[in-house]
From TrEMBL:
It is found in: Cytoplasm. This is tRNA threonylcarbamoyladenosine biosynthesis protein TsaE. Belongs to the TsaE family. It comes from the Bacteria. It comes from Roseofilum halophilum BLCC-M91. Pfam families: TsaE (PF02367). NCBIfam families: T6A_YjeE.
Amino acid sequence: MHLSLDLPDAPATQKLGIKLGQILAPGSVVLLNGDLGTGKTTLIQGLGKGLGIEDLIDSPTFTLINEYADGRVPLYHFDLYRLSPAQVPSLNPELYWEAVEVAPGIVAIEWAEKLPYSPPEVLILDLSYQGEQRRVELWAKGPLSMAALQALSEEDQSFQVGLSC
C-alpha cells in the first residue's frame, strides 16, 4: 500500500507526525529516508506530540537512540546519520522492534537507508523536496502499517495526493 502527500511547510510535516502518533499501534516501526532538511526530525517531533510525549524531541545524532516513555506508548527514536551500515547491527535495533528488553512501543529510525536489515512489518516514509515544498511517499508492509496508512488516508483527505495498493 502506498500514499503520496505534499507537505507545504514544516507545520504540515509536524501535523502528519501528530496524526501518525495518534493512529500507530504499539509494535509499529517507522523508517524515515531523505536528505538533510527534508523533515525527518520535524515529523518525529509531531509523532511524539501525537503520542502525548511532552519531552523535547530532538535528533539523537550523537546519542544514536533516544527513548521517550511518557506517552500513550513509548517512542524509540534512532538516528543512523553518523553510522555506516556495517556499524548499525551493534545497536541491536531488533531488540526494540521485537520489544525484547523494552516495553512495546513505536520505533522511528532516521536515515533508515543505512539499516542493513529491517523487520517484516514497517511503515516507510521517503521525504524529499519538490520545488519549494516537501513531499512524502509512504509505503506500508505488514498489517499494522497497512491499517495505519488506511486510517491516515480516510481520516484527513486534505493530506491525500494519491493512494494506491
